[in-house]
Design goal:
Layout lengths: L5 E4 L3 H11 L6 E3 L13 E3 L5 H7 L3 H7 L7 E4 L6 E5 L9 E3 H10 L6 E2 L4 E7 L2 E6 L4 E4 L1 E4 L17 E12 L2 H4 L1 H7 L3 E6 L2 E7 L5 E7 L6 H5 L6 H11 L5 H8 L6 E7 L11 E3 L1 H5 L7 H18 L3 H30 L7 H13 L4
Parallel strand pairs: 1-2, 1-11, 2-7, 4-13, 11-17
Antiparallel strand pairs: 3-6, 4-5, 8-9, 9-10, 12-15, 12-16, 13-14, 14-15
Length: about 375
């Protein structure tokens, strides 16, 4: 195979895993990212990487030891609390098994970025459009320039600009919004809240609403107020300006009125503003192969945040790279990747529905059982 011209669109974990997998085998690749720099925005909460999927992908691209150096197995702890009393309804303590240790999303992205050759990622290059003709992909960028590649890999997330080149499917709003805020230095400044939430994740829910936390590294805690069965335009309907921190805080405290003070303090004492994150998903779908373009991660199979997306994204990236390395013909490599990825992503979408139903059963659900259900469905898809 002649040296292929490959562009990865998006410097998230899927795209970076693919780039890393290509580079360790000497295949050139360029990553284009719309954000201005690596530090343009905070990358989000923590991820649990599963042994058969996310961790297997990191092994395949030679980064497992680096992952182990920063991952936090103690953060596998999960607490479910009574919203009115804060009593522990279900407590899954972390053990020594390295099945699904947590890592900050930002740490994982940094680990992947640091593994790439200098200048691999071109920052501040938003994509406008991709068109494919005779197996080539022409990419139009926001600065008015165009470039031609043998393969464009869409790793640009939920609202992918590459996806229309292969599929007309669009994300669908799930009816759920996560309102995000955070607490810093919780162990020093709020030891009673640190004790309440534990070392990993905590959730409490009732009446179509939840308060959840994720403990990141360095005493940073992400807090989510989750509102279910709510219109997408709920801030406008409620007359809440999301840039007015005090107004959002007051609205949420009213929504959770009567809940235990410790849980309310997670909202009352938050250090940042509030970010409204509507949850979307892609329907289970596949597409007819289009020479010159393919998709990874959320661009291919966006799911609600149930611990599936990052594992799928890493697996996609590592496996596309492996397929390209293993085949003499680039188009045949992409076909081989899609033949595995598409049934797997459809199975994951269906498994996510099962996971949501299990989680709705209440505090007796074993999170490890949920993780293993997902991995079984994804790795053994029924076509």
């Amino acid at each position: 195979m002649n040296t292929p011209r490959i562009a990865v669109i998006g410097a998230g974990v899927a795209g970076l895993a693919c780039a890393r997998g290509l580079q360790i085998h000497g295949v050139p690749v360029t990553v284009y990212e719309r954000e201005a720099s690596e530090t343009a925005r905070w990358q989000g909460g923590m991820l649990d990487l599963h042994a058969p999927t996310g961790q297997a992908a990191l092994r395949a691209i030679g980064l497992y030891d680096e992952f182990r150096a920063v991952a936090r197995p103690e953060a596998q702890e999960m607490r479910m609390l009574d919203p009115l009393t804060a009593a522990i309804l279900n407590h899954e303590e972390a053990d020594d098994e390295y099945y699904a240790p947590e890592i900050d999303r930002g740490q994982l992205r940094e680990l992947l970025l640091d593994s790439l050759a200098p200048e691999t990622v071109h920052w501040g290059r938003p994509l406008v459009d991709v068109t494919t003709v005779d197996g080539e992909a022409r990419v139009a960028f926001g600065d008015g320039t165009t470039e031609v590649f043998d393969l464009v890999v869409g790793a640009d997330g939920a609202w992918s600009r590459v996806r229309p080149a292969v599929s007309d499917v669009l994300p669908v709003y799930t009816g759920e919004c996560m309102v995000e805020t955070h607490l810093d230095d919780i162990d020093t400044r709020h030891p009673e809240l640190a004790e309440l939430i534990g070392l990993g994740s905590m959730m409490a829910g009732a009446g179509g609403a939840m308060i959840c936390t994720q403990r990141n590294s360095g005493g940073h805690v992400v807090v989510y107020a989750i509102l279910e069965d709510i219109p997408l335009e709920w801030p406008a309907i409620a007359g809440v300006d999301m840039t007015d921190t005090d107004a959002v805080r007051a609205h949420l405290l009213n929504r959770f009125d009567g809940w235990h003070d410790g849980l309310l303090d997670l909202v009352r004492r938050s250090d940042g503003g509030f970010i409204n994150r509507p949850i979307h998903r892609l329907p289970a779908h596949s597409w007819t192969h289009v020479p010159g373009a393919t998709l990874l991660g959320d661009a291919a199979h966006l799911l609600p945040p149930h611990g599936i997306g990052a594992n799928l994204a890493l697996l996609d990236g590592s496996e596309l790279a492996a397929a390209i390395v293993a085949h003499d013909d680039l188009d045949q490599a992409v076909r081989a990747y899609e033949a595995v990825m598409m049934p797997r992503s459809v199975a994951a979408a269906r498994a996510d529905v099962e996971i949501a139903a299990l989680m709705d059963q209440g505090p007796d659900v074993d999170v490890n059982d949920v993780r293993k259900l997902f991995n079984d469905r994804m790795l053994n898809p029924v076509v």
